[in-house]
Amino acid sequence: xxxxxxxxxxxxxxxxxxxxxxxxxxxxxxxxxxxxxxxxxxxxxxxxxxxxxxxxxxxxxxxxxxxxxxxxxxxxxxxxxxxxxxxxxxxxxxxxxxxxxxxxxxxxxxxxxxxxxx
Amino acid sequence: xxxxxxxxxxxxxxxxxxxxxxxxxxxxxxxxxxxxxxxxxxxxxxxxxxxxxxxxxxxxxxxxxxxxxxxxxxxxxxxxxxxxxxxxxxxxxxxxxxxxxxxxxxxxxxxxxx
Lengths: 118, 114
Known about the structure:
Chain A has strands at residues 5-7, 10-13, 19-24, 31-37, 43-50, 53-57, 65-68, 75-79, 88-95, 108-109, 113-117. Chain A is mostly beta strands and 118 residues long. In chain A, 37% of the residues are buried. Helix content of chain B is 0%, strand content 60%. Chain B is mainly beta. Chains A and B meet through strand 5, strand 9 and strand 10 of A and strand 4, strand 5, strand 9 and strand 10 of B.
């Protein structure tokens, strides 16, 4: 069964360093997402991406964050200068469609990358 | 702004019992609702997707209902098993152009005691 994969599973970094989290969405999906979950808190939407551009982003997704689809399979989240409060689990997700006007729109999530900022 | 609430926050039941998890959302203008399962330190597994036009969806021992007008959904688990122990998350997809997003509740942590 197709699945979303993410690497690395755990990333430790020093405050101020740049990190890149990688995701391989399900191959026939067109919409890609990043979410984060701070320990003990809700899963929060960060950004959605379609056709090589950002579709939506939340207030969390500030100038320190960027996303890219560098090739036909990978989808990345970059944090330019990490802060202690960026420590969280980051989930990538993908869906065939976004606005399910004709049904569908189910989002499938990867296993996550645990980011620890020291 | 859409808010999703899940009650109870935690639930402990003996094996074999049927149980109901509740989810409520503040803005009834949703496109769909998804129930997920999350095991400790793991990703989210999609369990059921209900479109806004549907009233319920079933998958095996799971049945999810949706009352969009009242902003409520329930997840019914029949004949619970220890392997059902996990956190169950409810999420609604809503918004408009430029603001579509999936909004999550905090989850219900289920423990099924053998």
